[in-house]
Design a protein that fits this description.
about 425 residues, about 45% helix, alpha/beta, single chain
Length: about 425
């Protein structure tokens, strides 16, 4: 089907979900999870084709984002079940007031309608987005990157079987067949057919959506995430946090890209950092982290001189920009200039410095003595996430069920006139 035909077909799913009660939506999610597992063999076969076609064209870390195995399919099903177990946000009375004239005014949560998601080579986004959309009463239109289309198509087919088993139309979760820029542009301008657009991907995709969309658009985050090691930091703790934030999964948006170190501890800490991220990883046969150093850091440890854009780049790779700063205020100022307002962290044992950092760093998630890798809908108790918003209007941080709802006012009267 053409993109326009899919947009029209999704309206049937929107209508059906708007009328579905909480029990029906929960049952649909349970069937969707079951169907994913029942169709695991075909999903993995499709993913193997995607992987074969992508090798040599995308980086190893991006291949890791694309790759599926049985464990990851199991994780996708678990994510759907976690969403199923959450309270239904639609229809919840957010506020209620009785006016002196007897009018009862209720503020009621309602689904957005049709949520479109444009994303790149992460098949698990397919199931996460579908689960949150269905649970919150929204139909969703998915537009994946060409590298993952076979995988996503198999996943959507499986989930469609689950929807139909629950008595809902498979069109409640639709996948765009055209992976060219034309289909993305059509979604961005589908006024009246798309109620909310969420881009999940690199800076170019997000910028294109924000600049060109005529439908409401959530600005989700590229993640230039910082970890600042304060003069009062526990250095062993800082090392564990940075190792996790940078190397546990470098291809995701909540991975650390910049390390700032207070000048008072730089001489002690930076050699520890080099040993942990470079020497130990080389010895263990792992990919070492390339350290891109400002002048002060380069005077202490070996690495690559930092280029003009290295502190403004989301590497999504085993690369870390490192700078030495004179004090906490300088670290906060550096973050203000270079952060994408996604996730930033301080490592310190000084509660006053921590409080100043959390008050002044204007990011969606601000951490004290913890890895930035925790910025995730599942970790935050949202079941899974639709994306991580770095804007301030409507939604901020990991977007779960509540962020996929708007509200309307329902007014009950008994003949009142004005």
């Amino acid at each position: 089907m053409t993109t326009h035909e899919i947009l029209l077909k999704t309206q049937e799913g929107k209508q059906a979900l708007s009328l579905a009660d909480g029990a029906t939506k929960t049952r649909a999610l349970e069937y969707m999870a079951e169907s994913l597992l029942e169709n695991a063999e075909s999903i993995l076969a499709a993913n193997a084709q995607d992987m074969e076609a992508a090798r040599g064209h995308i980086s190893e870390v991006m291949l890791d984002r694309l790759f599926l195995d049985q464990e990851r399919v199991d994780g996708m099903a678990d994510g759907i079940r976690q969403a199923a177990a959450l309270p239904d946000p639609a229809g919840r009375v957010l506020d209620r007031v009785e006016r002196p004239n007897g009018l009862i005014i209720e503020k009621v949560a309602v689904p957005m309608g049709v949520v479109a998601i444009i994303y790149e080579s992460r098949p698990n986004v397919t199931s996460d987005a579908a689960a949150l959309a269905v649970k919150s009463g929204n139909a969703c239109i998915l537009r994946c990157g060409r590298e993952s289309w076979r995988s996503c198509h198999a996943i959507v087919n499986a989930m469609g079987q689950g929807l139909e088993r629950a008595g809902l139309p498979a069109s409640a979760v639709s996948l765009i067949e055209d992976t060219s820029h034309d289909s993305g542009t059509e979604l961005m301008t589908a006024n009246g057919l798309v109620d909310l657009l969420i881009p999940r991907g690199g800076a170019g995709l997000i910028r294109a959506c924000v600049e060109n969309a005529t439908v409401p658009c959530i600005q989700t985050g590229t993640g230039i995430c910082h970890v600042y090691v304060d003069k009062d930091a526990d250095l062993a703790k800082a090392l564990r946090i940075i190792e996790n934030a940078k190397t546990q999964r470098p291809s995701v948006c909540n991975a650390e890209e910049v390390c700032l170190v207070h000048q008072d501890v730089a001489a002690a800490f930076l050699p520890m950092l080099h040993e942990k991220l470079v020497t130990e990883r080389q010895t263990a046969g792992l990919v070492p982290v390339e350290l891109r150093l400002d002048e002060r850091a380069a005077a202490i440890i070996p690495g690559v001189p930092a280029g003009e854009r290295d502190f403004d780049t989301e590497f999504l790779d085993y690369i870390l920009a490192v700078a030495v700063v004179p004090d906490a205020e300088s670290a906060i100022s550096h973050i203000a200039r270079h952060s994408t307002k996604h996730s930033d962290a301080i490592v310190t044992e000084n509660p006053d410095t921590a409080a100043r950092f959390t008050a002044q760093v204007d990011s969606a998630a601000v951490y004290v003595n913890a890895s930035t890798r925790f910025t995730d809908g599942g970790v935050f108790g949202l079941g899974c996430e639709m994306g991580i918003s770095t804007q301030k209007l409507h939604a901020r941080g990991p977007m779960g069920l509540e962020e996929l709802c708007s509200y309307k006012y329902v007014i009950h009267g008994d003949g009142q006139i004005r």
